[in-house]
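Researcher: We plan to redesign the surface later, but first we want a full-length starting point. Tokens attached.
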């Protein structure tokens, strides 16, 4: 099946193109750099010839009110007209949760105009509205900067990682048109000001975040409903996998009340790892290697976060990202006697041996746990040609500063 991704060289577009190609689809990454201009129409007809699905994830080059409206209206009309001429059977568009509640902003008014064009066309469609990306945290901070301070609303938000948006779009693209809208939100809820505050702390940025309920968000005033998909926990749908929770056409399901009493399923473990990776992406714009890293061969350990657990006095949660170059490894070691560790492979494959157990290989998306005092005899990249990345979350006594003790 031929799929054309408009904006296929941007953050979301690149991830989506790679996912679809991995699934065996014929994918065209359409953008001005590849000769496809949706404003002038140049190259559009040729790119869409024979396509069954078009996914529009392009963003406007300017947020100025008139410019952004002109971009989405002109681009939208040109794409839909070309789709009709080519016989495209499914138009998929990426939009923003809360768009119709943020009409003080020219950007969001333009997104509403784009959605209305899609709904009024003859092309079957699906609109995926996502909450803001973790990766967008820096841009939010920059937009709200006033001298040495940043003024932000304390409005609630549920950010999502770009990886999960791409995964959801891939699922939507592979399915039948809904002729409706899906909301996609992250599992964890944050206050906007606090999220940016944590981001700056991770970067060791001294700028002060000032909480201001009247601070505009790209021109719009916020409340706790502005950036969230609804008032109740959204229903998980098997049609969209990953850490994000979709809501089809605003339909919300009742929580079963038993979720916290059962073990995580394999799918939910992947959801957790994706959430943590999303936080890592947002926090790692500037980070430092741990001072107490053991000597290693082509590996690097980076502290992502370190937080006290308020409901468990004396305990902290710490998260580290371990990057292995091809053939890289960490020396044999033990962790603190207080530490419970949950590790997930984010990229590549990891060879691991704990205590006297067998050596195992864990691939991207797979997880393993280590109990307090376990001996980690082997921790290495399973490939000599590809890098690997591991995310490890520790629940540990706050007093245990050193997370790793190398074997002597």
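Model: Full-length starting sequence:
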């Amino acid at each position: 099946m031929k799929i054309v991704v408009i904006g296929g060289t941007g953050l979301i577009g690149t991830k989506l193109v790679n996912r679809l190609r991995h699934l065996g689809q014929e994918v065209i990454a359409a953008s001005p750099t590849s000769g496809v201009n949706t404003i002038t129409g140049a190259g559009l007809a040729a790119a869409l010839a024979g396509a069954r699905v078009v996914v529009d994830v392009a963003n406007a080059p300017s947020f100025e009110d008139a410019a952004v409206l002109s971009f989405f209206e002109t681009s939208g009309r040109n794409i839909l007209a070309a789709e009709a001429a080519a016989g495209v059977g499914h138009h998929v568009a990426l939009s923003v949760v809360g768009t119709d509640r943020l009409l003080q902003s020219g950007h969001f008014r333009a997104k509403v105009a784009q959605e209305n064009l899609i709904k009024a066309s003859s092309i079957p469609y699906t609109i995926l509205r996502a909450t803001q990306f973790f990766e967008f945290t820096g841009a939010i901070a920059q937009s709200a900067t006033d001298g040495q301070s940043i003024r932000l609303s304390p409005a609630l938000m549920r950010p999502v990682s770009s990886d999960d948006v791409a995964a959801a779009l891939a699922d939507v693209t592979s399915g039948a048109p809904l002729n409706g809208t899906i909301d996609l939100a992250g599992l964890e809820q944050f206050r906007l000001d606090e999220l940016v505050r944590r981001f700056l702390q991770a970067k060791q940025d001294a700028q002060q975040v000032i909480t201001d309920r009247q601070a505009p968000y790209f021109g719009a005033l916020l409340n706790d409903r502005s950036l969230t998909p609804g008032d109740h926990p959204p229903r998980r749908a098997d049609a969209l996998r990953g850490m994000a929770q979709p809501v089809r056409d605003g339909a919300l399901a009742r929580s079963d009340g038993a979720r916290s009493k059962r073990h995580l399923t394999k799918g939910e473990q992947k959801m957790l790892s994706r959430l943590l990776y999303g936080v890592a992406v947002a926090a790692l714009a500037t980070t430092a290697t741990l001072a107490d890293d053991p000597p290693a061969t082509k590996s690097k350990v980076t502290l992502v976060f370190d937080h006290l657990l308020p409901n468990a006095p004396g305990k902290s949660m710490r998260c580290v990202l371990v990057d292995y170059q091809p053939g890289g490894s960490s020396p044999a070691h033990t962790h603190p006697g207080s530490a419970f560790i949950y590790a997930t492979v984010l990229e590549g494959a990891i060879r691991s041996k704990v205590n006297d157990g067998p050596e195992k290989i864990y691939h991207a998306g797979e997880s393993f746990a280590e109990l307090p005092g376990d001996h980690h005899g082997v921790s290495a990249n399973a490939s000599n040609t590809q890098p690997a990345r591991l995310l490890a979350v520790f629940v540990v006594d706050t007093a245990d500063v050193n997370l790793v003790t190398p074997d002597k």
